[in-house]
Structures are given as structure tokens and as C-alpha cells.
Write a structure and sequence with these properties.
This protein is mostly helical. It is built from 8 helices and no strands.
């Protein structure tokens, strides 16, 4: 965010802020227009989050529909045909490409959604600055650091996640489906090369596991790196200070 521009010279300097002025006076939030502007921006961010979720569901649904169509097409061809593996090696890679593209878009959407969540926390921080008493009524976080963003997600700790948590997210589920498709493609390719049956199965399983783990590591590192690189403007005060929200959440 950009800093507030200074007033033009013809308007003169801003009047000094009294020593007993409320905290909002030092930030310009005492302006009657500030609440309306912040509320409008809050609703805009909610709309952005809604659009991201709608796009994520639409992309995931499109991919799963394409996967279903591919399976139906292969079943209509029939496994008894000698060129069945050739058809599979033509159709399934295209399906896997759509699946990988869907995974990357959903993964990017998760980071975008975290950014909008941090932005809404900044707006809540402004609300708390205007009326400090509302801090005790807010369940969502009002700081834009990882702890505050995590609290807005309903988490008890940091918003960053582990590789195990990745597989319960939407990108994680798509990654598992992509891994299965990759394993089937590997099995078809090795079968086309007339490899041993046990060797084909083992190679396919290895390809599937490696694909899932690589996608998971990519997602985890990208998201956690994005959160780590973000510089909070309104971080949470250290525990034990009067303005820290942690003590209140521990008592809940």
C-alpha cells in the first residue's frame, strides 16, 4: 500500500494533533468518510474471495468432467483392441495436462485468497483503531501477520501448512487425481514397451507417488514462501501486552 500523499502547498499544513486525541486521529481514521471507504473496500474483498472460490470450483468441475469423458471414451474403444494403449497414450496425457493446469491455478488461487484475507484483517485493524472496544467481540483476526490470518481461517496457529495438510485441500485432491493419471500413463507406456507385468505395476506406483509428492512440495513451499515474504504492516503485539488478542483467545 502507498503512503498517504501530503497536502498540496496551497492547502497549508495539517493542524497539529492534540496530545489527548484518540488513536484514530493520528491515522486519519477519525475522518467521517473513512468508515464508508473501509466498508466499501471490505465488501469488495469479500466479492473477490467469492469469485476466486467460484473459479476454483468451476475449474475443478471442468477437469473432473473431462476426466470422466476420457474414461468413457477409453471404455468405448475397448481393452480388447490392439491399439487400445495407443489411444490411451494419446488421450490421457491431454487429460493430465488439464489436471496439472487446474492444480497450478487452484494453488495460485489459494495464495490470492490468503492475500485478500490479510487485506480484510487490515480493515478490521482499522475498525479496532476507531473503536478499541470491538476487539474483544471479533472472532476473526485483525492483524495481517501469519497468526492473524490464520485466526481468520479458524486456525489456532500459523496459517502456513505442512505437506500432510496439503492433501486435504482442493489442490491436494486434484494433485492425487493427477498422480493416478500419471501412474496410468506410465503403466500404459511401459506396457507398450512389453515390460514385465510386475515391473509395470511397480513403475506405475512409483511414478504416481513421486508425482503427488512433487506437487505437494511445490504447493507447500510456494504458499509458505509467499506468507513468509509478506511484510505485515499491523503485526500482532507480543503476548502479555494489553493490546494483544492472544490472551483473550486462550480464555475462550
Amino acid at each position: 500500500m502507498h503512503e498517504r500523499p501530503a497536502l498540496p502547498p496551497e492547502h497549508g499544513a495539517m493542524p497539529p494533533i492534540p496530545a489527548n486525541a484518540p488513536p484514530s486521529a493520528a491515522t486519519g481514521l477519525d475522518d467521517p468518510r473513512a468508515l464508508q471507504i473501509l466498508s466499501t473496500e471490505h465488501w469488495s474483498l469479500l466479492s473477490s474471495r467469492s469469485l476466486i472460490w467460484n473459479e476454483s470450483f468451476a475449474r475443478a468441475g471442468l477437469f473432473l468432467s473431462l476426466l470422466s469423458a476420457s474414461v468413457v471414451a477409453l471404455s468405448l474403444i475397448g481393452t480388447e483392441r490392439e491399439d487400445f494403449l495407443t489411444f490411451a497414450l494419446i488421450l490421457l496425457p491431454v487429460t493430465l495436462f488439464i489436471g496439472i493446469a487446474t492444480f497450478f491455478r487452484l494453488d495460485d488461487a489459494n495464495r490470492e485468497e490468503a492475500l485478500w484475507m490479510a487485506a480484510m484483517n487490515r480493515i478490521r485493524h482499522a475498525y479496532v483503531t476507531m473503536v478499541p472496544a470491538v476487539a474483544e467481540r471479533l472472532v476473526s483476526g485483525f492483524t495481517d501477520d501469519p497468526m492473524g490470518v490464520g485466526r481468520s481461517y479458524g486456525l489456532t496457529g500459523d496459517v502456513r501448512y505442512t505437506i500432510l495438510h496439503f492433501f486435504v485441500t482442493m489442490p491436494g485432491m486434484i494433485a492425487v487425481v493427477d498422480a493416478v493419471i500419471a501412474a496410468v500413463i506410465a503403466g500404459a507406456a511401459f506396457g507398450k514397451l512389453r515390460m514385465d507385468g510386475m515391473g509395470v505395476g511397480a513403475a506405475a506406483v512409483i511414478v504416481g507417488i513421486v508425482t503427488a509428492v512433487l506437487l505437494g512440495l511445490r504447493s507447500q513451499r510456494a504458499f509458505n514462501s509467499f506468507i513468509t515474504r509478506s511484510t505485515p504492516r499491523f503485526p500482532e503485539p507480543p503476548p502479555g501486552t494489553p493490546e494483544s488478542p492472544q490472551d483473550g483467545f486462550k480464555r475462550m
